[in-house]
TrEMBL record:
This is Phosphate acyltransferase. InterPro entries: FA_synthesis (IPR003664), Phospholipid_synth_PlsX-like (IPR012281). The gene is plsX. Gene3D superfamilies: Isopropylmalate Dehydrogenase. Homodimer. Probably interacts with PlsY. NCBIfam families: plsX. It comes from Paenibacillus nasutitermitis. It is found in: Cytoplasm. Pathway: Lipid metabolism; phospholipid metabolism. Its EC number is 2.3.1.274. Belongs to the PlsX family.
């Protein structure tokens, strides 16, 4: 099992990306990790003897966070991200991880790795936390701003397979993000998608409102990338504001500080539940290889969990399962 890691992508690259990969290599010696990037810069962050299951693949260029995705991928063919994608396409790696430019990674998935036959638009997947800690798999959360009903149908099928194969959930409930729960609510896209999902070989439960998502009223949440990305960033912003307000309140007086010390354990558990580092990354489903987008601020823990996520997906035959379902074979 070989996993390529874009060592130069992300806010803390290459230092924390390399260290996270090394921790993963020591944790799972049966995985071969391919660190892709500038060899001298990568070697600076390898302390002691490099694990035997880690190999450096040199790439002379880097795609920056503010570069135009399509132009960057086409012009920077020796960038760490594009080289990692090429390793997947050529069968030299079963998966790739990157914390770099999101748009460029989407483009790499499409132009370098390539789509699964029959998939029109890949989807970016994210696990949203829920009250019962089971989580909701939401897609698409930003890979495509415009979608057709057929795209939402494919998202639903891919999301169902992911929850079953990777997370072991039997017969996952699929909900369609909408402004109301009634069947004929929403815009034309939602109405047309509803009819397709009803007839699909999935456990479709109907429309779901965003206010109910974190209560775990579905296991897979289907939406177009525009609405999904707005929902995700609203949740992230709300969580950040709440934690900031709580911290300010709990440190505003001596009595509150005492209360904070009593609540510390519970608050840490809540923060962990909302922490992106626990999930590792968001897979791009629909491309002909496993592509995982890690958070731009990924640290050692996030990278290690991203490798773990990739390992489980490869072992569970996620990509072949999606390809077989879509092709009908």
């Amino acid at each position: 099992m070989r996993i390529a890691i874009d060592a130069m992508g992300g806010d803390h690259a290459p230092a924390l990306i390399v260290k996270g990969a090394l921790e993963a290599a020591r944790e799972w010696p049966d995985i071969q990790l391919l660190l892709v990037g500038d060899t001298p810069r990568i070697e600076e962050h390898i302390e002691g003897t490099m694990p035997s299951n880690v190999k450096i693949i040199h790439a002379s260029d880097v795609i920056g966070p503010d570069e135009e995705p399509v132009k960057a991928v086409r012009r920077k063919k020796d960038s760490s991200m594009v080289v990692a994608g090429r390793l997947v396409r050529e069968g030299q790696a079963e998966a790739m991880l990157s914390a770099g430019n999101t748009g460029a990674l989407m483009t790499t998935g499409l132009l370098v790795v390539g789509r699964i036959e029959g998939i029109e638009r890949p989807a970016l997947v994210y696990m949203l936390p829920t009250i019962d800690d089971v989580g909701v798999l939401a897609l698409d959360l930003g890979a495509n701003m415009d979608a057709k009903p057929e795209h939402l149908l494919q998202y639903a099928i891919m999301g169902s397979i992911y929850r079953t194969k990777v997370q072991g959930l039997k017969n996952p409930r699929v909900g369609l993000l909408n402004v109301g729960t009634e069947a004929m609510k929403g815009n034309e896209l939602s109405k047309a998608a509803y009819s397709l999902l009803e007839a699909a070989p999935i456990h479709f439960i109907g429309n779901v409102e965003s206010r109910d998502v974190l209560a775990h009223n579905c296991d897979v949440l289907v939406c177009d990338g525009f609405a999904g990305n707005i929902m995700l960033k609203t949740m992230e912003g709300t969580a950040g504001m709440l934690f900031s307000t709580l911290k300010e309140t709990l440190t505003s007086s001596f009595v509150n500080k005492i209360a904070a010390s009593i609540l510390r354990s519970s608050m840490q558990k809540l923060r962990k539940k909302m922490d992106y580092k626990e999930h590792g990354g968001a897979p791009l489903l629909g491309v002909n290889g496993l592509v995982i987008k890690c958070h731009g601020s990924s640290d050692i823990k996030a990278v290690k969990n991203g490798v773990r996520q990739a390992k489980i997906a490869i072992e569970s035959q996620l990509i072949p399962s999606i390809a077989a379902e879509i092709s009908g074979k």
